[in-house]
Amino acid sequence: MTVKDEEYRYISEHVYWLDPKHPQYSKSYKEGAIKNFGETKFQILKIKNSFDGMQAMAVAPIVHSKLENKNFKNKKNLTNFRVLK
């Protein structure tokens, strides 16, 4: 399966929602959850919230009701960096 650039963009936008300070914060983003990002369902494999303000999320597409991870490299979306004072 090929993941479209638009789906990567959608995932990158939604990783910000892991931050409790974000206006669209959602507790439903947790490891093992299945989310629609664009036109494809993805399973959230790993979430990392660092003390330095970075959120990261690894996801893999679900194809024909099965997690497809043999032909797909898990993509980590690293966003929301903050400078600590």
Task: Domain count, please report it.
Answer: 1
Shape: globular
Q: Count the helices. How many?
A: 1
- List unreliable stretches of 5+ residues: 79-85
Strand residue content: 35-45%
The radius of gyration is 13 Å
Mean pLDDT: 76
Q: How is the biggest beta sheet arranged?
A: 5 strands, antiparallel
Cα separation of the termini: 43 Å
Annotation, overall tally of beta strands: 5
Write down the secondary-structure element order.
HEEEEE
Q: Can you describe this structure?
A:
The protein has one helix at residues 5-14; strands at residues 34-37, 40-49, 55-63, 66-67, 75-79. Strand 1 and strand 2 (40-49) form a beta hairpin. The longest helix is centred in the first third of the chain and has 10 residues, at 5-14. Helix content is 12%, strand content 35%. The protein has one helix and five strands. Residues 79-85 have low confidence and may be disordered. The chain is mainly β and 85 residues long. The protein has one domain. Strands 1, 2, 3, 4 and 5 form a five-stranded antiparallel sheet that branches. The chain is globular, with a radius of gyration of 13 Å. The N and C termini lie far apart (43 Å).
